[in-house]
Design brief:
Layout lengths: L27 E8 L6 H20 L7 E8 L6 H12 L5 E2 L4 H14 L3 E3 L14 E3 L4 H14 L5 E7 L3 H13 L6 E8 L7 H10 L3 E3 L4 H13 L6 E3 L6 H7 L7 E4 L8 H13 L7 H20 L4 H9 L4 E3 L2 E5 L5 E2 L2 E7 L2 E8 L2
Parallel strand pairs: 1-2, 1-3, 3-4, 4-5, 6-7, 6-8, 8-9, 9-10
Antiparallel strand pairs: 10-14, 11-12, 12-13, 14-15
Length: 378
């Protein structure tokens, strides 16, 4: 475990007993997790980790799996390229984990997935939506929808709810997630009656976007599609407001972070994004999760990444119980057979491509808060 990870107060109670035991024997079952706990997208990793940790604690409190406790071993990939591979190699070769949970970001999942596939270690991503993630092999799964579905839903939203006849697109060329979601949107939007206007790009981590925004303003679109991550999105929205651009800006689940509001503040007002679920969903599973999460993390409100981290661990434990073993191929088959799973994020099944078939929701930012707008079913 990296030393930076210990700085996070939420993880000091992480199960670390019996570190020396092999996952196939002893009194614990080792499960690996890699997440961006530090770096520019740290809220993603922190949220998904807290949801995962809560699930593991609940599973262990209920007797564990096969009478053994799950031992969660977590590595911080620091939001850096190269670190996911290091983390996953360590978890598999040194720690002897039976499965891997992670990552939220598609680029980092794509880096780790071939390693898990080669070692026949099942990997479950909480929230990586790029369609190519699960194409890395039959040991790679996700408990979220992919961007083929999300991009189509966003295209229909633009032409339907926003009544936008022309949309500009601003894409992060350093992000597989951003490029993939933009591609899916562009494939669907014209058939829903819309026209793609100016298409520009940026590099994630940039600070000045006024050149691109000025060009977009001159093109006079009805809305801007911004498939990016929350930290860049907030700065872009601030600068768009400064340029007097009073048109809707909308994006996908990469916006999902309270930091979007902290950074963007009133510049985010009225804009929209699609995501995996809303904590306002009145299901018993969501209500129970939110109550438990707030109790566990001192009143903190969960986001969709926390919900999906939670569901990823529950799906893994459920598959272990159905498989009756932690053997890689048999556990893989059991995960693949997941059907009608009642998760906190909603009921879902895994399809033949190992993607979750499930609904998405639209959120509008109103009064400085994320407000449920609509649900789109698959």
């Amino acid at each position: 475990m990296k030393s930076k990870f210990l700085l996070l107060p939420a993880v000091v109670v992480l199960a670390t007993a019996l570190i020396g035991c092999k996952s196939g024997g002893g009194d614990s079952i080792k499960v690996g997790e890699f997440a961006s706990l530090t770096g520019k997208e740290a809220t993603f990793g922190t949220s998904s980790h807290e949801g995962t940790l809560l699930a593991v604690e609940q599973i262990n409190a209920a007797g564990g799996v096969f009478g053994k406790k799950l031992e969660l071993l977590t590595e911080d990939d620091q939001t850096k390229a190269g670190e996911p591979a290091n983390a996953v190699n360590k978890l598999i070769s040194k720690d002897g984990v039976v499965a891997i949970l992670g990552e939220v970001a598609s680029s980092r999942s794509l880096e780790a997935a071939p390693i898990c596939q080669q070692n026949k270690i099942p990997m479950i991503s909480p929230a990586s939506t790029n369609p190519t993630v699960t194409k890395e092999g039959d040991y790679i799964f996700r408990v979220c929808f992919n961007d083929t579905f999300q991009g189509g839903a966003l295209a229909n939203f633009a032409s339907g709810t926003l009544k936008a006849k022309k949309v500009a697109i601003l894409t992060d060329v350093k992000s597989d997630y951003s490029k993939g979601l933009a591609k899916s949107f562009k494939e669907k939007y014209p058939s829903s009656g819309g026209k793609i206007g100016i298409e520009l790009d940026f590099n994630g981590g940039d600070k000045d976007f006024k050149g691109q925004l000025t060009a977009i303003k001159s093109d006079a679109p009805d809305a801007i599609f911004l498939p990016g991550y929350y930290n860049d999105v907030a700065l872009i929205c601030i600068q768009a407001k400064q340029l007097g651009m009073n048109i809707p800006i909308f994006g996908g689940d990469g916006w999902e972070s309270e930091s979007l509001l902290t950074i963007g503040q009133d510049a985010m007002e009225g804009h929209y994004f699609s995501t995996h679920c809303s904590i306002e969903q009145p299901t018993p599973e969501m209500t129970s999760f939110v109550d438990a999460y707030k109790k566990r993390f001192k009143g903190k409100t969960p986001d969709a990444m926390a919900v999906l981290g939670y569901d990823s661990a529950l799906v893994l434990a459920d598959a272990m119980k159905r498989a009756g073993t932690t053997d890689g191929p048999k556990l893989r088959d059991a995960i693949a057979a997941t059907k009608d799973f009642a998760g906190a994020s909603g009921k879902f099944s895994l399809n033949a491509d190992r993607d979750a078939v499930k609904a998405l929701v639209f959120i509008q930012i109103k009064g400085g808060k994320f407000t449920y707008n609509a649900t789109v079913n698959p």
